[in-house]
Amino acid sequence: MNDYLKSRGFDKDIREEWGLKSDKSEVIINYFDSDNNVLYRRRNRPGKDPKYLSPKSEDMPGGYSHLYGLHMIKYIEDTLLLIEGEYNCISAWIMGYCALGVAGQAMSLQEHHLKPIPDTVKKIIILYDDPKFAKERAREILKCYVI
Known about the structure:
Elements: H1 2-7, H2 12-17, E1 20-22, E2 27-32, E3 38-44, E4 52-53, E5 79-84, H3 86-94, E6 99-102, H4 111-114, E7 123-127, H5 131-145
Parallel strand pairs: 5-6, 5-7
Antiparallel strand pairs: 1-2, 2-3, 3-4
């Protein structure tokens, strides 16, 4: 699986910084809080069905999924990419863009998901594979931010 991660552009330093662990058949994706504590882990199993395995919501802190990349939140300034997928989130940071990832396009965004986003953020750019889901997430964000 290290070769799989290398093929995605993730060298050893990046894998360590983002807490990606691999074994023979899967990648462990650690979700960190803003203090770099592990909240929970997802498993990516390339070529298998289902491709991703997540803990049950009731087993996650607060009883819900969190945004991916919260350990990088201290570096986010005025523009944030809200991006589908953990690997896309990491890639955005590698390219110099501040990003937080969403585990899947169907994950709805509620106030508790958006609360960690710094007040300095003035623009959120939503990058999803499917425009339909991007529009739904945009409406959810607007409900939380528009007074």
